[in-house]
Fold this protein.
Amino acid sequence: MIKTLLKSVGKYKKDSLKSPLFVSLEVIMEVIIPLLMARLIDNGIEKGNLPYIVKMGIALLISALFSMLFGAIAGKSASVASCGFAANLRRDMYYRVQDFSFSNIDKFSTASLVTRLTTDVSNVQMAFQMIIRIAIRSPFMLIFSLICSFTVNVKLSLVFLAAVPILGFGLYFIFSKAHPIFEKVFKIYDKLNRTVQENIRGVRVVKSFVREEHEDEKFKNTSKEIYDNFTRAEKLLAFNMPLMTFCIDACMILIAWLGAKAVVGNELTTGELMSLITYAMQILSSLMMLSMIFVMIAISRASAERICEVLVEESDIKEKENPVKEVKDGSISFKNVCFSYSKHGEKRCLDNINIDIKSGETIGIIGGTGSSKSTFVSLISRLYDADCGEVTVGGINVRDYDLKVLRNAVSVVLQKNVLFSGTLAENLRWGDENATDEDLKRVCEYAQANGFISEMPEGYNTYIEQGGTNVSGGQKQRICIARALLKKPKILILDDSTSAVDTATDKKIREAFAAEIPDTTKLIIAQRIDSVINSDRIIVLDDGRISAVGTHKELLEISDIYREVYNSQTKGGRSDE
């Protein structure tokens, strides 16, 4: 885990190393100061030696100034290193997610990834800063102070050693009990984020069904669950402070009592006793800081493990060393293809799929809910990889292509249309960032979108809200179709992408496709027979298998499923066409 995380330090290695170095120098200066004070008292003040007092005073001042300087440099370096480390962690996680296949993304929920990129990274950032500064300072201070205290008086210094095992056992007990709770808490954070995201995205549904109270209760219960678990963890961590206080007070009382007796018995000078008390405070404060680090590590360890889960996750989809860089045409072939979302599942979403599609053909895909229509087309652009069999595009196995080349040749308008915040033109240029205004207008005319866009006050410069909330469902679908066309694809996949469009507009879109992009292979998934009735061929899917393939007329004769759907949509002998 540590090795995985340290890879994200990157260019901040210098600052990460500089901080411990200057912390060490700061500690040396702080440890020297009590020794100088002891000499000042014993050889200067008690003997009335003014020149010696001035000499030691200057030495103390220089030591304090250097300590302050080294501390400032260490603090700045630690801040730069920790902030840079956090930025790199977020970048590395984000880039890793971009490389994930759909199956990898399915493994992590959206809410969980958001929590890992924000809360978990912040926790690790704080722990990293404490480790490269305080975690170095505290052991160094402890060791140097112990060494110096033993040079002053061995007997009194043994008091400090007695406190170490007591604190060590106490901290281990607290850490081992608190860590599992924090692991659980961050999983509940995922649940809380998911609740908030669903509520915000579905706010119209929530209000239309008057479910505000239900959503409030859901949020309240999840929030209370986090509160209860954090309370349990904090109750354990609360033992840290009384344990530290007990050890500090016990050590100070013993040193004061034994030290006073030693001074009376001329076994110890006043200056040495003062330096021992100072070292006692340094040693005990170091132990207290170490306990704080353990607490922070207990919190951040769970976050670090969750971050590493993302960083070490390997994409299921791998590219070959010398991938094919050109898609010849839009021909598609499925040969004995099977697929399951669960690699250990017995139920296959697609089973023994065999179909050859010529370049430029228009293929309709019909099937009931859960018949794996969307899964079928997802294999073409390698959003998922087939478990067995072979999917080819342009006569070449999709696994042999460069992913960018393949996906640039395949335009997919998914069932769930997504628009991003920005102008309408910016959204369209996702298809081609170098597209001219004329190109935008042309594809929008094909998609029957130019009409309503022209009526907007700012036309193609109209600002689209996040998720496209300021356009209707039908308008959003047509914008997404235009965006897909802008890629000039060899294969165009419409996954139920005209469901919110009226039948007349749907017909115009299909006619535009036939006239303007005849060489593009078109796969149209639809619930309405009218959307696929004029296709060259129609595939009927049933429970992950191809039930029948043919033209509209052929399927009416040979497919019971197709005939049933057709009759249900043309009840009374009237078609919607």
